[in-house]
Amino acid sequence: MPEDMPGAGVRALAAAVHDPPMEQHIYELVDTLAETYWRYRARHEAFAWLWNRHRHPQAQYRVLDVGCGTGGLLSYLARRVPMRAVGVDLFAGTLPYCWRRGIDAVGVADATALPFGAAAFDFVVTQDVVEHIADDHAALREIARVCAPGGLVLALVPAFQFLWSARDVELNHFRRYTIGQLAQVVEQSGLVVLHRTYMDAWLLPLLWIAILTAPRKPNGLTNLASDAAPGQVSWLNHALLAVSRAEAAAANRFGLPFGVSAVVLARKPIT
After folding, report:
1. What is the pTM assigned to this prediction?
2. 131 falls within a domain
3. Is the pLDDT at 92 greater than 60, yes or no?
4. What is the DSSP string of 185-246?
């Protein structure tokens, strides 16, 4: 791969070893569900729709997924849009999953010190990552740095601190966000917010009830079941996908006032 291309030499970064931000079995679960699980499918479709609506026409796009995990989103986008897909993650154990999906330009990197030149990418995505980083402002500034002028940044994080539970601690979260808090961090990085919304609104009351009624750990935090993936049963998975698709259509066009995730799409100014 030529050294001036985004992602050049990024495989070499895999030699850097970090403690995984999530446990290995969680990545294995994510990999098995990436193509079928209703929540991931609806999220990928929503991201692709937002990108398609706001991107400038190009023959090929340079796309970076910060916190690419097992590569499900990059693989989904690459099947639909001509692009050079690049991914980074803190955990080298995710890389074989990406390679199996044909995403070879992946490596280990810290979101606050990305190994790319300025303006290297036309679209930068980071989902369920920023909440893992103590200095979220530094991460968004770095993401903005590698985004090309006129390019887009999409960030998704877990929403609402009142939903905090022992599960957040197990996943090494530092915080949950309101949509306003996320938009503020994005804007302070030098980006212009184009769209902001919550996602998975219908899940919020269910999660809130679970937090109120679930048993608690000695530290007082709600002890939610950690490996539950509602919807793995085929008929239920299809039903929840239909609900999530309908909700995502409203979220993308109008924005939802609440949900368990917050999403911001922003553009880097040309001047």
Report:
1. 0.86
2. yes
3. yes
4. HHHHTT-EEEEEEEE-TTHHHHHHHHHHHS-B-TTS-B---SS--TT-SHHHHHHHHHHHHH
